[in-house]
Amino acid sequence: MFNTDSQKMSDSIDAHVEFSFKGETYSLVSTIALGSALDPHAEPSSFHAILAARNSIDTYSYLYEVMQQEDIRFDNAQGQAADFCTDGEFDFQAYVANKQASNVIVQLEQVASRELGIDDLEQHPELKNALLHAYELGRQATP
Questions:
Q1: CA 44, CA 54: separation in Å to the nearest integer?
Q2: How far is the C-alpha of 121 from the C-alpha of 105, rounded, in Å?
Q3: Could you tell me the mean pLDDT of each successive run of 10 residues in the chain, 143 residues long?
Q4: In this structure, are residues 85 and 95 in contact, taking their beta carbons and an 8 Å threshold?
Q5: H or E element at residue 29
Q6: How far apart are the C-alpha atoms of 49 and 75, rounded to whole Å?
Q7: Do 52 and 67 contact (CB within 8 A), yes or no?
Q8: What is the pTM of this model?
Q9: DSSP designation for 34
């Protein structure tokens, strides 16, 4: 779902969570690089697991359970992620849907370029629409 390597990615976001456990306050922060191949069934709760792993918190511990009760705040979104981060909230599902739609357009543009010599589908909205409909029909026909 996420690229957690230290590679520089164009889409990233800072995640923050603060909570108390056994009289100790924890304030965890991490920059998360959002991978280009996203799982459409991923859950935003995975951000808790990433923060836990990066801060040596066992995901089978009470500490982790307490952490999961707190909302994660987001900021410093980069790339396409910036369009989906507002007032500390990150609309992960909308980001994933947008990323997937962008990937489909890129693939369709490759087909149009290779088969028709058309490099910019935005200049041919009827063709773009037809290719998108054909893509959807193929997707729906696949079990």
A1: 16
A2: 9
A3: 48 96 96 70 77 95 96 95 95 90 90 91 90 87 80
A4: no
A5: strand 24-33
A6: 18
A7: yes
A8: 0.73
A9: P
* Token pair listed for 125: 């909205």
Residue bearing tokens 């998360």:
32
Burial of 78 (0-12, 13-18, 19+ CB in 10 A): middle
Torsion angle of the four alpha carbons 40, 45, 46, 51, in this order, in degrees rounded to the nearest 10? 150
Smallest CA-to-CA distance from 67 within 84, 88, 53 is with: 53
Name the one residue in this structure whose structure tokens are 């009760």: 69
The candidate with the shortest Cα–Cα distance to 44, out of 74, 8, 77, 78, is 74
| Cβ atoms 48, 26 nearer than 8 A | no
**Contact residues for 63 (Cβ-Cβ < 8 A; gap 6+):** 21, 26, 57
